[in-house]
TrEMBL record:
Name used for this protein in its record: NEDD8-activating enzyme E1 regulatory subunit
Function of the molecule: Regulatory subunit of the dimeric UBA3-ULA1 E1 enzyme.
Molecular function via GO: NEDD8 activating enzyme activity
TM annotation in the entry: none
InterPro entries (UniProt xref): APP-BP1, ThiF/MoeB/HesA, ThiF_NAD_FAD-bd, Ubiquitin-activating_enz
Species this protein is from: Letharia lupina
One GO cellular component, as annotated: cytoplasm
GO biological process: protein neddylation
Pathway the protein contributes to: Protein modification; protein neddylation
Amino acid sequence: MAERATTPPILQGPTAKEKKYDRQLRLWAASGQAALETAKVLLLNSGPGVVGVETLKNLILPGVGSFTIVDEANVSELDLGVNFFLEESSLGRWRAEETRRFLQELNPEVRINALEGSIDAFADHPRRLEQYSLILLVGPTRNARVLDRICQHADKSSIPLFYIHCQGFFSHFSVQLPAQFPIVDTHPDPASTQDLRLLNPWPELLEFLEKKTGNLGLLSDHDHGHVPYLLILLHFLNVWNASHDSQFPANYSEKKEFKALVESGARRNNSEGGEENFDEAAAAVLKSLNPHSISSGLREVFEADACQNLRPTSANFWIIANAIQKFQTSHNGILPLPGALPDMKAQSSDYIQLQNIYKAKARSDLAEVTRTIRSSEQELSRRLSIEQAEIEAFCKGAQFIKVIHGRPIRVAKCTAEIDWSDRAKALSQELQNPDSLLPIYFAFLALDRYQDDIDRIRTLRQPANDQQFNDILTGRVVSGAVPPLPTFAESAHFSTPAVDPEHDPKPWPRFDTPEARTAFDDVVKELDRADWGELHNIAALTGGMVAQEVIKVITKQYVPVDNSCVFDGIASKTAVFKV
């Protein structure tokens, strides 16, 4: 009786979501996409608000979970000229709802809400911010008090906050992250992540080395030309050590000599005049024969109090870091093996065996770290165990993890100077560079300060209507003892006094070079000319940059800006400063 044919299982193709987000999944994987889809973003929009809407556009398309738009303005004629998410029928309507309606068309799977009220309400009732995982605040705000209170509460609640400015041809955004913001998956250059452990081989690797190179000189030309290059390096390291008191090549001249030794082992009596695997070995000498050391970022993590002294409330990051530090201490400074192998000339069977050896070692190291973590969890009486995938990701990328120490956003007030004591000297040095874009940052600070002054005048004078308020601003009406407010250009000139950062208790970075003062004045003139207006192309580009950094923060992948970025649309240049 003939056997019945077995129907092969149906192959499962990519899901609709995987097809939709295929390209971005290659960048931040399923874990990053899951983080995006659970995020709740709050946009506190003010001014023309174009840069805020453009930022949302670039977050809605990749599928960030939900958005709330707070914008009390109604659509004006000016809005129709710069905001692509409005139409003529929107004129006079509530801007938040109109932009929500058109943004929703970009991605129906995303939840977008328009919330009635003003930004001031979030400053007066800051607990309303706690439901959000990230805040986008578009400036300038009505006054410094609003900005200050929102920033303070975001900092207290460890909610990342982006403060964004866009006016004329210039833009700027600052990122306020929690005091400790760890990033495990920094996505380093693949070439820098290779860890072959050639100077610290383990028994299984040495056993395979002996099997494949014990009689290297007797191998056939085919087998000789397919010995994996890392085994070639290990073989010649043994030859080198025999004549150098078991000392590895340590400096450039010794590595150059060792490279020549490796090249001398290649067979050249063939049609190619050499062997590709030996060429690969020679090329890898300089980058593969370095003593194992840990990066400065990882050393900083190991030395942190949060790593040294675990608590029941410690984040998963610090518990894993503590376990890896213990592993490193017990293995003479060696970290868990990542286990990945680069491509190389080899027979498939040999490469697979070698790959299995590295993967087995990586699994063994991972198991040891996991045991330490489970022991720590018991000692700390933690209810939930850290997932194995999180531990594995940390072990693979341990050498490249980074902790960003968040800094508060600088708030410019008309009644008080900013304390620059910790950064004045570094920023003063930056201002000596005639091509520096730092004056753009200070010009936007001056704009914030001027806006705060406008609000102060409005409060003190209590004008009856907008016309009377405009008369006050232009100096046509002077009431009480309050002098007329100078123009922004006049006000900005006094916003950055040249003081001595060595002796002043609250020093400002010094504008003590003609170039720095001229650059600052030029930016001020452009902001003054723009008269609070945004250009759509500058807002769109800035929105793209902000969205990119937001995605980094939400996914905790790649390294976000630390902590302020400026864009010069005239020169088409960007710069990042730590302020």
